[in-house]
Amino acid sequence: MLWLWLKAFHIFFVIAWFAGLFYLPRLFVYHVDVHGGAEHERFCTMERRLYVMTTIGMLGTWAFGIATLLSGPDIYMKSGWLHAKLLLVLILSGYHGWLKTRVRAFAQHRNTKSAKFYRLMNEVPTLLLLAIVLLVVLKPF
Ligand code: HEM
């Protein structure tokens, strides 16, 4: 029973994390063409606050994911799908760290990337989400 509660909170935080992972690069797409003034400041505030919420989502996902793992069946530790999932989650956490470097770059007027670049990068969490959901649901190996 505890295991199911932990898993429910794990999924809750996954959704919170992904809301930010999807929306932050979108904000960057629109921020690219704004170079100063009140609008720039507004974008910076939105990005900073959204980054904090997204980080809470990531920490909750990790905390409840590990708790779900530790309270679940022993077989999980030996499952290939779980190892593959954890690898993808590490890549996703790296992507999260990269977003932080972009929030800073915009705040310091150092962004040199185009809107097209951020549109492309926006697909990274989409692909990782699809791969992770397929791994946890189908458990193919
Ligand atoms: C941060 C490290 C993570 C750990 C240690 C972890 C661990 C786990 C464990 C042990 C389960 C239970 C598996 C089962 O019910 O068969 C689970 C379920 C789940 N995880 Fe994670 N997870 C992590 C991150 C993520 C991420 C990033 C996502 C989404 C992209 C995700 C999506 C899910 C989903 C959808 C389930 C429910 C599967 C089901 O009930 O069939 N997890 N996780």
TrEMBL record:
Pathway the protein takes part in: Porphyrin-containing compound metabolism; protoporphyrin-IX biosynthesis; protoporphyrin-IX from protoporphyrinogen-IX: step 1/1
Co-factor binding details: Binds 1 heme b (iron(II)-protoporphyrin IX) group per subunit.
Reactions catalysed according to its record: protoporphyrinogen IX + 3 A = protoporphyrin IX + 3 AH2
Obligatory cofactor(s): heme b
Record's subcellular location: Cell membrane
Binding of heme, residues: 10, 85
Single biological process term from Gene Ontology: protoporphyrinogen IX biosynthetic process
Family: Belongs to the HemJ family.
Name used for this protein in its record: Protoporphyrinogen IX oxidase
Protein source organism: Solimonas marina
Record lineage: Bacteria, Pseudomonadati, Pseudomonadota, Gammaproteobacteria, Nevskiales
